Amino acid sequence: MRSNTIIFACLLITSIFMYTSCGNGGNGGGALSNASVAEKVYVAPGDYDQYYEFFSGGFSGQVTVHGLPSGRLLKTIPVFSVDAEKGYGFNEETKPMLMTTFGFVPWDDSHHPKLSQTNGEHDGNFLFINGNNTPRVARIDLSTFETTEIIQIPNSAGCHASPYPTQNTEYLVAGTRFSVPIPQKDVPISSYKENFKGTFTFISGGQEPGSMDVAFQILAPGYDYDLAHSGKGVSHGWSFFTSYNVEEQNTLKEKNASQYDKDYIAAVNWKKAEEYIAQGKFQEWPSEYYHNYYDDHTHMATSTLKKGVKVLIPSECPGLVYYLPTPKSPHGVDVSPTGEFIVGSGKLSADLTVHSFEKMLAAIEAENFDEVIDGIPVINFDAVVAGTVSSGGLGPLHTEFDGRGHGYTSFFISSEVVKWSLETYEVVDRIPAYYSIGHLSIPGGGSMKPWEDGKYLIAMNKITKDRYLPTGPEMAHSAQLYDISGDKMELLLDFPTMGEPHYAQGIHASKIVDRQVKFFPLEENEHPYKALTEADTKVVRDGNEVHIYATMIRSHFAPDNIEGIKVGDKVFWHITNLEQDWDVPHGLAVMGAQNAELLIMPGQTETLVWEPKSEGVYPFYCTDFCSALHQEMQGYIRVSPRNSNIKMSWSLDDDVFGE
Amino acid sequence: MTVIIMSSCGGGSGSKDEGKFAPQRMAKPLTYEEAVADWKNQKGLGPIKSVEMGEFNAELAKKGEEIYTLKCTACHTPEEEKLGPAPQGIFKRRTPEWIMNMILNPEEMAKNDPIGRGLLMKYNTVMANQGLTEEDARAVLEFFRTLE
Questions:
Q1: What is chain A's mean pLDDT, rounded?
Q2: Would you call A15 helix, strand, or coil by DSSP?
Q3: What is the mean predicted confidence (pLDDT) over A568-595?
Q4: Are residues A361 and A376 both part of a single domain?
Q5: Nearest residue to A508 via CA among A79, A62, A138, A142
Q6: Does B75 touch chain A (CB under 8 A)?
Q7: Nearest chain A Cα to B127, which residue?
Q8: What pLDDT digit, counting tens, does each position of A444-474 carry?
Q9: Of A358, A435, B83, B102, most Cβ neighbours within 10 A?
Q10: Inter-chain touch A15–B5, beta carbons under 8 Å
Q11: H-helix or E-strand containing B99?
């Protein structure tokens, strides 16, 4: 009897142990709650995500595209940095995209991806992003997911407060994070207060591919202009820029630029600027800058050097710019969906400052100004502020909105997301971020209409530490996905990102999916070195330049045997991909080529330059596994001595051609 | 009690799922040789169920030749075998429906059509889908009428 009891007790213990070991729960929550969280981010094999989320690659210079809610990486789009994988910046067609007045600049620090807007809503046409280091703004066409246009910003340094389009993408904006002598000149750095200035640039042509241009610039005091947002709804016609370093210091800024209690948000009336431009009240400066445009019919980019910009001087243009005093070196300036509230995040503060656009207009009308700086009136703080969010957090940076009356603000120092009411300015919820959150993103949360079925918030964090398997000293920056549909925010998912994802924007997949280009029709190929059929293929010598007009299709090159190349030749491989099917790119790699591969989309022509240094026979091959006979997709090119008499010839199978 | 808990723990009840592992009973598919012998009844797999050939249309054939030259000649010359078979005399061995389905739906034809699968074995490659519309494919068909 006794032994039976013991056996029974053992079975009971075993049973309990098995029960708890079944579907082990992990962090807190337990098995059931983790399973229900997993369900919320699970996208079944073959199913699509609900949203595209475009992440800045930060110091990678690129953009990455993830799906939400899964967090899966869908694509890396090269923008400001060369990308050997796609040949971007290595092939002859895309090198002009990276041209600047400083020459070919193969890298930049990409920051803020912003979707084009129509009536204050994301329309899915284009994505824009700024390059901070060598001031530039790029367009990505969302039918091809390729960078198709880059404009350089003259009279600028540190293109950080950008691109933040206006309500109908009338303009993209660009504020200077680093004030510099404008125009540039050789002066002592200690003459900062005398010689250094900032600019606000307005770029037109956002909705018309190929026509991006510097519409006008506004000269501003030599502060550091950090972030921006353009007005919408009631504040349409205005753009807002935060500043720090109103102390105008040029060294040890972490101390010296943090002395004053308040810095300014600049409110720029760009409709007024248009009036002044129309009236001719601008200065014409001889500034030079590059405009680079990639054409999907020629499959080529061209660079154009532009000269001359229109510059407005605030002291000559009353009513153009006002300053809104904002505490503690504000970083983000975010405009609520209606356009009424302008939220400044003083990054050394615990509180958010919410300015009212309506109060701002009234204060301007009443000339309720504390002082005027270089023609810019400083509006009285109490006259413009609508409220303060006492958060209890530390280091607020950025705010987005859910369209249901709440703001969500990232707090860097206290590493959390704080949800607050736009009516009462009271905090209603908070949740930790892992770790040191920078930007946050709600799909549509920066527009007039956050997506109605949207329930996600993404935190982009600066520090990763122990969130994933360790990978040496450097860890991929972490992002967190939260469900914000209920009263309490809920952490759903962690996923790694590329570079430093400063910011991201999300859009409902339905706005993007149907506009996708699946291949480029051969009939529309206008590349000057195209070969549309194998009958058009040839090799042409012009002095020491050799142009190969070749084609590729599963699974051969035409021609695939080439002779007559000599050491010292500059060989241009112009290859046309004859495929007319979705997702069938072919690659070209040539042994010893000192650049990269080509990765050629169906119907596209691309060019690789190859300068063989020594004689011999060189193989070339397709890099992108294209068919069962992909390994057979290869050829040979013979390189003869400089003084060789070998005639130029090219062939495929038994068809031999030549001089 | 232990047993009950074990079975609630996802302990395999899969063996009871007889249908899942039951052998598939299907009609034996035609071999390549059988299908070729029966070619007049072979319409292929794809969007084309029937084609009305009608009178020869020279204008349509000319358009078809242009499409064929641009999209097809990397692998098919009209009269001699290149990477795939030549279309000359094709109406003596294939139906118009089969030809158009082969042009429009080559991936499925290579996998599931008895003649398409035999051709894959013979030529070692799945024909590229060159993105022709049904209208384009009909024009190419008309061009093939000039290759008797």
A1: 94
A2: helix
A3: 97
A4: yes
A5: A142
A6: yes
A7: A554
A8: 999 999 988 779 999 999 999 999 999 999 9
A9: B102
A10: yes
A11: helix B96-104
Nearest to B2 among A15, A551, A627 (CB): A15
**Considering the entire predicted model, what is its pTM?**
0.91
- Containing structural domain, residue A470: 51-515
Is B5's CB within 8 Å of A19's CB?
A: yes
Report the gap between the CA of A557 and the closest CA in chain B (Å): 9
B82: its two tokens: 């290149």
Structurally, how many domains does chain A consist of? 2
The reply to whether A509 and A531 lie within a common domain is: no
Where do runs of H (alpha helix) occur along A152-243?
192-195
* CB B102, CB A561: distance < 8 Å: no
CA gap A11, A20 in Å, rounded: 14
Asked if A558 reaches chain B (Cβ–Cβ under 8 Å), the answer is: yes
Is the residue at A12 inside a domain?
A: no
**What confidence category does residue B25 fall into, taking pLDDT thresholds of 50, 70 and 90?**
low
DSSP-based three-state secondary structure for A324: strand
Tell me the per-residue pLDDT of A476-490, one tens digit each, with 9 for 90 and over: 999 999 999 999 999
The tokens of A376 are what?
Answer: 């810019």
Task: Note the pLDDT of residue A31.
Answer: 54
Cβ partners under 8 Å of residue A488, min gap 6? A429, A431
Determine how β-strand A570-577 pairs with β-strand A545-553. Answer: parallel
Residues A560 and A625 in one domain: yes
Q: Which domains does chain B have, with CATH numbers?
A: 33-46+55-144 (1.10.760.10)
